[in-house]
Design goal:
This protein is α+β, with helices and mostly antiparallel strands and 588 residues long. It is built from 15 helices and 18 strands. It has helices at residues 2-10, 130-133, 208-224, 241-254, 260-270, 282-299, 302-306, 309-320, 346-370, 374-388, 398-406, 412-420, 433-442, 446-462, 518-526; strands at residues 42-46, 50-55, 62-63, 85-88, 96-113, 120-127, 151-156, 161-176, 182-194, 202-205, 480-481, 492-493, 529-531, 538-541, 550-557, 560-568, 574-579, 585-587. A hairpin with a 6-residue loop joins strand 13 (529-531) and strand 14.
């Protein structure tokens, strides 16, 4: 528990990953071999950090609530008189308590009852925010049980242990719901389910706000690395291919190789026979190609790439049929989607899809060249060049302007000046914010990008976030209470009062992997790590510190960890130190 508490303070998991063979006891016999699967995750138990709120009838209904903060005997029932939290209901009053576990986690809850207790029914409510834990599923504020149960009733045993729940949460509310019942709780522990993997990548600088943002982005993706890569741990516990790209870039910068990436990519391929579009959206099949290009750059796994060749070739040939003679994309049969905030701007979405197809064909040409299919590589290059001649207007959409810049269809400086720089981080997107930052880097606008990270992602931290959200708008912060407090009268509820599309109000996910873009961006452009050759055989180190005085960190490669440090001297000149493992060449 001490080690886990240290993790929760620093949000760092360190140490080696040890391969472990899982076997059933011999009594099961060989006939069970095809009827089991193993979980690659571990479970840890966390005691509450504070009591946010309670209804105790003026002290009559709850006694010794602080006993829950002290922990107990590691979830073991015991015949002792050790103090417990006692909750008593009457004919018409029912006690309840709201606990804060300090950080957002994925998992459930464990309740340990005492001998003095009686079997009791309780209502459990999980919440990513205080407001959500205090809400009712199906109520006016939009709370749901979609994808994961977060509001339900269960029965607790006498002198026993009960475990329940499988959701994303930080807060848990427990209500006694039957009259004239006594419930004595020895322990209430959060069950944290996660991959026990080291953070090989790191980022530290002279700006603690940026350091927190990098780590929060890394942790957001870590929580979503379950058996597959999910988009959200409360809602959208699914493999979404477009959303996967920022997550894969974060994994590459923080964890290095992890099996969850190929598992997720292969799942999407195997459940999407062509000519279908992944996740029912044409753009997400484009992202599948782009992700494979970037994953190969970082990992250099040719054998795995060869396993994709047949599907990749068929998908590229399908995409050729979606380009007309003028070079305009004609994607059909699936949702025309970039991200949710861009959806009303159909002209801008059209421009973004044109650019995204160019990027996908450029990635396809690179992959086909590596796989030895020169003819298909040439076709991809030719079609990309044709499409670059047709440049639709971005219609003032930052998402579209960013993609046009990254596709080489609009000068990055022009994209910044015309659209992206307007209002700073105003109208940024948690998903496409990564590509807005990348466009700023391409224009050499590093300081503005750093400032946008501080303002936009830092704004979520200012509102109590411990993970980054599905959506966020700077305007939401005006006169709003944080997610870690009861909303005072006259204040806005930043979780319940905002959101749109599929994430209205409390259905809004506050842990969404697509929002992790600052982690790979800071690693690539501030720490300065750029992959030149597949498998990180050659890295270019090109730091851009902006107003930072120093930055240091590590970067995972298939050959080992690279250690990097940059510091400004009195004249402002950057002094760098780079230590790379054998097999990694460093160029500057």
């Amino acid at each position: 528990m001490k080690l886990l508490s240290l993790f929760l303070v620093s949000v760092i998991l360190a140490g080696a990953v040890h391969a472990q063979e899982h076997r059933l006891p011999p009594v099961f016999g060989s006939e069970y071999a095809s009827r089991t699967f193993q979980d690659s995750r571990v479970r840890s138990y966390i005691t509450p950090q504070r009591i946010v709120w309670k209804y105790d009838g003026g002290g009559k209904l709850i006694s010794r609530p602080d006993a829950l903060l002290a922990g107990g005997n590691n979830g073991q029932s015991e015949l002792t008189d050790r103090p417990s939290c006692s909750m008593r209901s009457t004919d018409n009053e029912y006690p309840s308590i709201l606990l804060d576990f300090g950080k957002e986690i994925q998992g459930g809850i464990q309740l340990v009852t005492a001998a003095s207790s009686t079997p009791a029914k309780v209502r459990i409510r999980f919440g990513e925010s205080v407001s959500e834990a205090m809400s009712q599923a199906g109520g006016a504020q939009g709370a749901t049980n979609d994808h994961a149960m977060r509001d339900f009733v269960m029965e607790l045993p006498w002198l026993g242990v009960a475990e329940t729940g499988n959701s994303g949460f930080r807060f848990v509310r427990i209500d006694l719901i039957e009259p004239n019942v006594r419930l004595d709780l020895k322990e209430v522990n959060a069950i944290f389910s996660y991959r026990d993997i080291p953070y090989h990548g790191s980022f530290k600088s002279s700006d603690e706000r940026l350091n927190r943002i990098w780590m929060t982005a890394a942790y957001t993706v870590h929580l979503n690395m379950q058996e597959y890569i999910w988009d959200g741990i409360k809602r959208d516990r699914l493999v979404w291919l477009g959303d996967l790209h920022p997550e894969v870039m974060t994994i590459s910068a923080v964890f290095g190789y992890n099996e969850v990436v190929p598992k997720s990519l292969d799942l999407a391929r195997d459940i999407t026979p062509l000519p279908g579009w992944m996740n029912g959206m044409c753009s997400y099949s484009l992202w599948w190609i782009i992700i494979h290009r970037d994953w190969y750059r970082y990992q250099g796994d040719l054998a795995y790439l060869k396993n994709q060749q047949e599907y990749l070739a068929e998908l590229l040939r399908l995409l050729f049929t979606k380009v007309d003679a003028s070079g305009k994309e004609r994607l059909d049969g699936g949702g025309r989607f970039l991200d949710w905030p861009s959806s009303p701007n159909t002209q801008g979405v059209d421009a973004g899809l044109q650019a995204l197809m160019v990027i996908a064909f450029q990635a396809g040409a690179e992959l086909c060249g590596i796989l030895g299919d020169r003819q298909l590589a040439t076709e991809c290059t030719d079609v990309a060049a044709l499409m670059q001649q047709y440049v639709p207007h971005h219609n003032q959409l930052k998402q579209a302007a960013s993609l046009l810049a990254l596709a080489g269809m609009l000068p990055a400086r022009q994209a910044i000046d015309e659209v992206i720089a307007d209002g700073g981080a105003k109208d940024f997107s948690t998903f496409y914010g990564y590509y807005m930052l990348q466009a700023q880097a391409r224009a050499g606008d590093y300081q503005a990008a750093i400032d946008n990270i501080r303002q936009f992602w830092g704004g979520m931290l200012d509102m109590g976030a411990t993970t980054f959200w599905e959506d966020f708008n700077l305007e939401w912060m005006e006169n709003a209470a944080g997610i870690d407090e009861l909303v005072p009268e006259g204040k806005k509820d930043i979780h319940a009062d905002f959101g749109a599309y599929c994430y209205k109000q409390l259905r809004h996910s506050l842990c969404h992997g697509w929002a992790s873009g600052p982690a790979p961006w800071l690693t690539e452009h501030v720490l300065g790590v750029q992959v030149v050759d597949p498998g990180c055989r050659t890295l270019r180190i090109e730091p851009h510190l902006g107003d930072l005085q120093w930055v240091e960190g590590t970067f995972p490669t298939p050959h080992g960890v690279v250690k990097i440090s940059h510091r400004k001297d009195a004249s402002g000149r950057i002094i760098s130190s780079v230590k790379a493992p054998r097999g990694v060449k460093i160029v500057r």
